[in-house]
Amino acid sequence: MSKPDLGIIGGGQLGSLLASAAKKLNIKTVILSDDKDAPAINFADEFIYGDYQDINIINNFLEKVDLVTYEFENIPYEILKKINEIKSVLPSPEINKLIQNRLTEKEFLNKNNITTTKYVSINDLDDIKINDKFIPGLLKTCTLGYDGKGQYKINNANDLNNDFDFSKGYILEKIVNLKKEISVVVTRFGHQKYEIYDPIENYHEDQILKHSKIPADISDEIKNKALDWAKKVAEELDYIGTMCVEFFIDKNNNLYANEVAPRVHNSGHLTINSHNISQFENHIRAVCGLEKLETKKIYNAKMLNLIGEDILEYKNKKFKENEFFYDYLKKEVKAKRKMGHLTTIEK
Ligand code: AMP
């Protein structure tokens, strides 16, 4: 079977790391990005810059590829659907549509008996006042929020005033008394065909992932439940490719699914060095219909995200043989921007 040429929408670090994994498998990648300085320009075989809404750009991109995947979930559904009519898009646009909205995402999880945090849909100030049992809570936009963007802590029903614009649609989520956060990365190749990584433990600062480690320090009971739930999500979505479920564990050891990422995930970066097959390679294998190989952990590992100016001291640093530094080669250093990461394996 000849190998397909793969189109990737999005040119950030996830697109770059996908392109690097594809190269290892001799798969050609063409990246489409609406940022002319997107870092993936350094890693993909071909790079197309343009507006995702521009039909000429899309057609040019589609002429060069056999199938399409994406590195971020906030692509308008209509665009993915249109692309899917010409070249197949994996994971399917319908999955992305369901997951990119926090309300439909949480309804889906609860329908499948997967516990989420308590939440309520909010359309105006009165909704907050009558739902004070969700306070203290986090008001989150239903769409387009990530890394704490579009989130407001509500300690009191009067925290917001009449000027607040509710038109985007929000949920109010009860704050969980967090003990730990974990994530499960899983690649689904077809009906009941998986490669799944053990839970990864994550620590956030200012709602941005700061570091991750594998294995997570959790009980077998929580581990098995998280693995079962992640597999169930992938199966019920009929997902093809790598995805991630983020979980909260509260002080009473209850497990809650926080959100689903229909893509490779930052917490899974350490799999490049900890496992024989990374989350990126497994994604490429699954969407391109390549062989599913048994995925095994070789080393325990931890990963540190280099955010904003953190990167500067690493650029010229000497690393030990168990340290692996990844520079995303972003042109501009900005506060809160993920600039690179460092993975340390335990030998
Ligand atoms: P999210 O964008 O929903 O993934 O939230 C980003 C981060 O904010 C999470 O990883 C948590 O550290 C924190 N967070 C979000 N929602 C809650 C919640 N309901 N209770 C406690 N912490 C939360």
Write the layout of secondary structure elements.
Blueprint lengths: L5 E4 L3 H12 L4 E5 L12 E4 L5 H9 L3 E4 L6 H10 L1 E2 L3 H7 L2 H10 L7 E4 L2 H6 L6 E5 L9 E4 L15 E5 L3 E13 L2 E4 L3 E6 L2 E7 L5 H18 L3 E10 L4 E7 L9 H4 L4 H9 L12 E8 L4 H4 L7 E5 L10 E9 L1
Parallel strand pairs: 1-2, 1-4, 2-3, 4-5
Antiparallel strand pairs: 6-9, 7-8, 7-9, 10-11, 10-12, 10-14, 12-13, 13-16, 14-15, 16-18, 17-18
Helix pairs in contact: 1-9, 3-4
The structure holds adenosine monophosphate.
Adenosine monophosphate (AMP) binds next to strand 10 and strand 15.
Attribute tags:
globular, binds adenosine monophosphate, alpha+beta, Rossmann fold, nine-stranded antiparallel beta sheet, five-stranded parallel beta sheet, 347 residues, 3 domains, Dna Ligase, domain 1, D-amino Acid Aminotransferase, Chain A, domain 1
Under CATH, the topology of the largest domain is which? Answer: D-amino Acid Aminotransferase, Chain A, domain 1
Number of helices: 10
| Estimated share of beta-strand residues | 25-35%
What is the CATH first-level class name of the largest domain?
Answer: Alpha Beta
Please give the radius of gyration in angstroms.
Answer: 20 Å
CATH superfamily label of the largest domain: ATP-grasp fold, B domain
What share of residues is helical?
Answer: 25-40%
Biggest beta sheet attributes: 9 strands, antiparallel
Q: Please trace the helix and strand order, writing H or E for each element.
A: EHEEHEHEHHEHEEEEEEEHEEHHEHEE
Q: How far apart, in Å, are the first and last alpha carbons?
A: 38 Å
Low-confidence stretches: none
- Number of domains as seen in the coordinates: 3
- Global geometry: globular
Mean pLDDT score: 96
Instruction: Report the bound ligands by name, code or SMILES.
Output: adenosine monophosphate
CATH architecture tag of the largest domain: 2-Layer Sandwich
Number of strands: 18
Q: Which structural class do the helices and strands define?
A: alpha+beta
